[in-house]
Design brief:
The protein contains 12 helices and 13 strands. With 323 residues, it is an alpha/beta fold. Helix 7 links the parallel strand 6 (147-151) and strand 7 (170-174).
Length: 323
């Protein structure tokens, strides 16, 4: 019976949901603590490791004497998997695009709506007996009629654009790796543009690109200086794509209107972070794809791929690592 190691610490309820959709013939090995010592002990007999937000580092991979495959629960492997260690050991890597798209697209829209109406600030103030019926009007905006800029326009970016269109928004996207499909663009009411054009013209900017050396801090002081003072920045991709010091400066100085973040440069976020003192930001703890629906969808697709793997069939969504 192949042993499958789950690299992230979860609750028993979450592990139960995974086992609920896991086919017969597999054993799921889970953690009781978030300590790498336990990871190194438990991964030793496992042929597959499932990786989500918690990175799997060199020491854990080196302890996995039987490891043959790392299967990412999502698609953002660049900052969660030590691919050099995989190449050294000849371990394969596969991704799970299924199950992520809907949750992240909905969450990007949720953050934009919440930031546009200062939802978290209004809620916390109401609970303190402060009734901001008029004072938020000058800084609250609507989605309808706005131009949304998508940095990255793969499956998630396109799904997000479809949802913004339903609210009456048009769009522009920048993605040097995305195909230009005139029919699709007309359907979503979007058009391609370069990054500078997107930054200067859009009312809402939503990030949907992986974290790479190319994209790290691609939004920093220079880019914030280009944006409209009424812009809302949304990030559901990876925290280090945005320079947080520059973001704090832009939000606190009024350089931009608001932001909605699900990801951060350092996770978990320090409660003493300057971000936590700002009124014009909405923050969630990296949960955009964290739904029952997404988890079950991901795991069904992932285990179907593992069944292919153990039958000796080609893997779907395999990353071709440079050997």
């Amino acid at each position: 019976m192949p042993k499958i190691f789950y690299n992230s610490l979860g609750t028993e309820e979450m592990y139960g949901l995974i086992r609920e959709v896991m086919p017969e013939g597999f054993e799921l090995v889970t953690l009781e603590t978030d300590e790498d010592g336990e990871r190194r002990r438990k991964i030793g007999d496992c042929e597959v490791a499932i990786v989500a937000a918690k990175p799997i580092d060199t020491s854990v991979i080196e302890a996995a004497g039987k490891l043959r495959l790392v299967h990412h629960q999502g698609v953002g492997y660049h900052d969660t998997v030590d691919t050099r260690s995989l190449v050294k050991r000849g371990i394969r890597l596969a991704l799970t695009p299924a199950g992520t798209t809907t949750g992240v697209a909905e969450h990007a829209l949720l953050l934009a709506l919440a930031a546009a109406k200062r939802l978290s600030f209004a809620d916390s103030e109401l609970r303190r007996g402060r009734w901001h019926i008029n004072s938020l009007r000058p800084v609250s905006v609507e989605i309808c009629g706005k131009v949304v800029g998508y940095i990255g326009f793969g499956q998630i970016g396109q799904a997000t654009a479809r949802r913004f269109k339903a609210f009456g928004a048009t769009g522009m996207y920048h993605d040097p790796y995305a195909s230009h499909d005139p029919r699709r663009d007309a359907e979503l009411d979007v058009r391609p543009g370069d990054l500078e054009e997107l930054l200067t013209q859009c009312d809402i900017i939503s990030i949907h690109t992986p974290l790479t050396d190319e994209t790290r801090h691609m939004i920093s002081y220079e880019q914030f200086a280009m944006m409209k003072p009424t812009v809302i920045l949304v990030n559901t991709a990876r925290g280090p794509i945005v320079n947080e010091a520059a973001l704090v400066d832009a939000l606190s100085s009024g350089r931009i209107l608001a932001a909605g973040l699900d990801v951060f440069e350092t996770e978990p976020v320090d409660p003493n972070s300057p971000l936590c003192a700002l009124e014009n930001i909405v923050m969630t703890p990296h949960i955009s794809a964290g739904t029952i629906d997404a988890l079950k969808g991901k795991m069904r697709a992932l285990f179907a791929n593992l069944e292919r793997f153990f039958r000796g069939e080609p893997l779907e969504n395999e990353v071709k690592l440079n050997h």
